[in-house]
């Protein structure tokens, strides 16, 4: 196991099974209970050991019955279906670092309620949506946080949009 939390350890097990052995892992019965009893949205982020992003996929709200399933499917998606990157290869496997963000319930808010170190942000307009996790090294102001998330969503800053914030606990 390469992580300091059961969430990250499980993500490593999942990726080792899927990337190295080509096997979609079932949920083992001996996982820590919080992975089986808890439901939450989560993001799984892969970085290269130098810090460069290598993949990030997640769910804002729980889409699965357990956090274990949420982490499993988001870890596989981050490694194989992030449209910004080619699928993770076996050769890259030992050069990645995994983090798991477990999300709190989103709450509608105003711009004044944002804090990029404390809250992630969601913007919505019609069918467009953008999400940005909290406490990202390169995002140190609310203005920068909004600019990035609006660009991700394809929403102009002059449009009317709904704004939500959420907390996230990051595990390495």
UniProtKB/TrEMBL annotation:
<dbReference type="InterPro" id="IPR023473">
    <property type="entry name" value="AMMECR1"/>
</dbReference>
<feature type="domain" description="AMMECR1">
    <location>
        <begin position="2"/>
        <end position="172"/>
    </location>
</feature>
<dbReference type="InterPro" id="IPR027485">
    <property type="entry name" value="AMMECR1_N"/>
</dbReference>
<dbReference type="InterPro" id="IPR027623">
    <property type="entry name" value="AmmeMemoSam_A"/>
</dbReference>
<dbReference type="InterPro" id="IPR002733">
    <property type="entry name" value="AMMECR1_domain"/>
</dbReference>
<protein>
    <recommendedName>
        <fullName>AMMECR1 domain-containing protein</fullName>
    </recommendedName>
</protein>
<dbReference type="Pfam" id="PF01871">
    <property type="entry name" value="AMMECR1"/>
</dbReference>
<dbReference type="InterPro" id="IPR036071">
    <property type="entry name" value="AMMECR1_dom_sf"/>
</dbReference>
